[in-house]
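Escalated from tier 1: flavin-adenine dinucleotide holo job.
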Amino acid sequence: MDSSSPSCSVVIVGAGISGIAAAKELAKSGIEDMVILEASDRIGGRIRKEDFGGLTVEMGAGWIQGVGGRESNPVWELANRSGLRTCFSDYSNARYNIYDQSGNKYPSGLAADSYNKAVKSAIQELRNQEAKLHGVSTVPSPESPPSPKTPIELAIDFILHDFEMAEVEPISTYTDFGEREFLVADERGYEFLLFKMAESFLFTLEGKIVDARLQLNKVVRELQYSRDGVTVKTEDGCAYNANYVVLSVSVGVLQSDLICFRPQLPKWKTEAIMKCDVIVYTKIFLKFPWKFWPCGPGSEFFLYAHERRGYYTFWQHMENAYPGSNILVVTLTNEESKRVEAQSDKETLREAMGVLRDMFGLEVPTADRILVPRWWNNRFQRCSYSNYPIFATHQDFEHIKAPVGPIFFTGEHTNERFNGYVHGGYLSGLETSKALLEEMKKGQKESSLVEAQTLLLEPLLALTESLTLSTQQEAVSDLHKWDLTRQMYLNGKMVVQDGVK
Ligand SMILES: Cc1cc2nc3c(=O)[nH]c(=O)nc-3n(C[C@H](O)[C@H](O)[C@H](O)COP(=O)(O)OP(=O)(O)OC[C@H]3O[C@@H](n4cnc5c(N)ncnc54)[C@H](O)[C@@H]3O)c2cc1C
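Tier 2 regenerated the structure:
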């Protein structure tokens, strides 16, 4: 460890919901000497509001998903306690509002038929994959369903696979917390929930965090760790010593080379990190001088059917959340997201306007403003959320969240049941801080054991000091408590964490 650097018990890397939840829990248990290092200039991470033409829009997480079930979603509880304004979303209407490239709406019967066919075929495909995964050769595997070809089939396939059935069924969020979803529509933003958490343990003044334990614009580039603790080095040349680190960066960041680990992470850890897929999910906001889209009941979501899958397919108007706002949102995913991130906003506006004029006619006015988030090219994110492949195992999750020496991993990607969601991030922060507190307690017990052994050895030391035999003198004078600790490690009396070799 670098002896000239400031020291503390815990450094938390990242101030998203998992990092802030972990910090709050540690503070609640009396761990006050902590530092939170955040690469960007704000807290919130993938929960991020933006001012857009005088209104607050959510560039990252927008919904509280999983409400109204047998258990209460903890994020829904936080939202209620903070009086966050939300608005119920009914996605199911999207499948009946499908437009072709000439602006005709597909008849609802045809849309419903295509939808039911696609659901059946998606379920069949999942069964096939599961059978293949479990090597079921005795049961004849049914034929693969035909892949979607027509624009309407492609549009439905997109909403099914990139939205409704993006996860393997059953989806814990819906089975545990309920199937309802609420859009956050609050001027203070979804991130207000993080501020409320932070204000319970950090000093705030006039709605701002003014506590030196939160350090913004601190990009962590190196974690040098050993049994004695961790030295955390940041891009601006600072170093911090800590007994432990809670690392809450996204799996996309872990897959990149932003943070260098010394020594390198063990193979089981890097394999688990690389096995996790990521989703890029982009909500593009467009503000118009007036609205030209239908706004009655059941019209909030609509689809554009195009021969290119995912090409400006999924649309939402913001009239339910913010009446009179004249804002539309179109969602792109993965390759389309990356393609749009790489081009100018002007080009994206041109494409989006082409699609809107296909659907609603040439007289549609050009948007006054456009907002295009870039999650993939943000080196502090490198994804929107994790997406585990169907063949991911329980052990993969165990590995991705297991500590390596004094480094504890947290974040939505470490939560087996709720990865990908805000509540997954929140619960992972709580879980990781509990595991760390346990480890700290164990460490305290072990160091008091060492103290006790040192005390027991003192009479022996006194006795040996009175002896004049030089060999005995050398042997004893070399003995101090750190040697005892090392001896205990070597004798296997203390747990040596995997990866600290
Ligand atoms: C577009 C989009 C839409 C989404 N929609 C929803 C939704 O509707 N509902 C839902 O439940 N979830 C949604 N999610 C997912 C949800 O936002 C995330 O699961 C959750 O916010 C992740 O929290 P986290 O604390 O794990 O990670 P993060 O929020 O990513 O926090 C990690 C923090 O670490 C910081 N960091 C990274 N690298 C470094 C470094 N080297 N040094 C210091 N700091 C670093 C980052 O800046 C960040 O602040 C969405 C996400 C996106 C992007």
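The mean pLDDT is 87.
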